[in-house]
Amino acid sequence: MKRIIIAILTLAILLLLIGCEDNKADDIPAELKCEKDADCVAASCCHPDSCVNVNFKQDCERVMCTMECKPGTMDCGQGRCVCENNKCVAKIE
Questions:
Q1: DSSP state letter for 76
Q2: d(CA 48, CA 51)
Q3: 38: which DSSP letter?
Q4: Which of 5, 42, 46, 74 is the right S-S partner for 79, CB 3.0 to 4.6 Å?
Q5: Model confidence at 2, in pLDDT bands (50, 70, 90)?
Q6: What would the pLDDT profile of 10-21 be if each residue is shown by its tens digit?
């Protein structure tokens, strides 16, 4: 009987912990939520150093940027947008 109670308590704790992990995704703002890398794009048109969900991307059609490869940005292939823990982030090398 003691083993059954311990097993039930262990299962309850595990389910509680799993539920807490799911709630972490709810804390992420909609503009940063993602499921895969393709969901993420640069947050700004020029010299981006962060990423957003593709549904929140800026309209860069009429924006002119310098051709500078600014350090600390994703310019010139220095970085890319990825989905990490359901959040769009910039990986800058």
A1: G
A2: 8
A3: G
A4: 74
A5: confident
A6: 666 766 666 555
